[in-house]
Amino acid sequence: MIITGATKVLALIGDPVSHSLSPIMHNGWIADHGIDACYIALPLKSDDAETEIRALCRFGLAGANVTVPHKRAAASAADESEGVVANVLRWKKDGSVSGFNTDGQGFLDSLAEAAPDWKTRVRRVLMLGAGGAAVSIAEALGPHVDTIYFANRTQARADAAADALRAGRVLRWDDLERGFGAADLIVQATTLGMGANPSPDWPLAAAKPTAICADIVYRPLETPFLKSARERGLATFDGLGMLIHQGARAFELWFGVKPDVEKARRRLIEALG
Ligand code: NAP
User: Fold this and answer.
1) Which of 161, 175, 233, 234 is the S-S candidate for 130 at Cβ 3.0 to 4.6 Å?
2) Which residue's CA is the nearest one to ligand 1's atom 34?
3) Whose C-alpha lies nearest to ligand 1, atom 23?
């Protein structure tokens, strides 16, 4: 593609961003749709990201994604935001900026792909972790289920996550077996099993044979958690789906067209090697 003065610029803002698959995903879709735009990654190290993002907002980007650790700052920097955490920023014609969070809905899209009947199957959810991603997913799942048990290494974070939701409950980190036995959906939303991080011996033997197991980590694509669940014959799905679907929702917010998620999956699997 040729970049001209008219080319629209979109950016991923976060720290770190060099490992991100979002530029490959979005530039692939931009090319598919013949849009005069490019998507770049902007590393932002800052103790005051809200001010930096507010300044960036004046440069007239066409859109932005925001990742760890700046999603709260992005919501505060936007002129309006649908929540206190934003992973998508969209510029209006008058230059004002709106914040959105597509992470949770991206997870639901991915769940629906893996288990189209999930709404009739899933009443109880075990959420492993209570970080930013776990909370976004739980917020999206909340209206559709009876109970979401948060189990987190740091108990105070699980307490806060559970308190914020009607369906939220807390399960002690050393009581996981009980949670695995009760859940219809188990979501691994910690960093355990990511890259070289060790993974514990999850008590998957206690899980119901009908349980659905999701890992939102996608490096590696098959985490130790998913491998054990699959070996036990449980339904599983990986973290690439959430990444692609949250990105597809962002792309639609920016350009008004639904991109091809299957094409993105092929490209990202190739990029992951
Ligand atoms: P975060 O806010 O930093 O939360 C990290 C979570 O991992 C916390 O619950 C933390 O527990 C837990 N954790 C870290 N080290 C642990 C350990 N040694 N033992 C037990 N628990 C540990 O991060 P996040 O944004 O929620 O992201 C979590 C994971 O999801 C990352 O791997 C990220 O790459 C992935 N992710 C994937 C997608 C996707 O689209 N697929 C989107 C977002 C995130 P404490 O509270 O005790 O520290």
Assistant:
1) 161
2) 217
3) 131
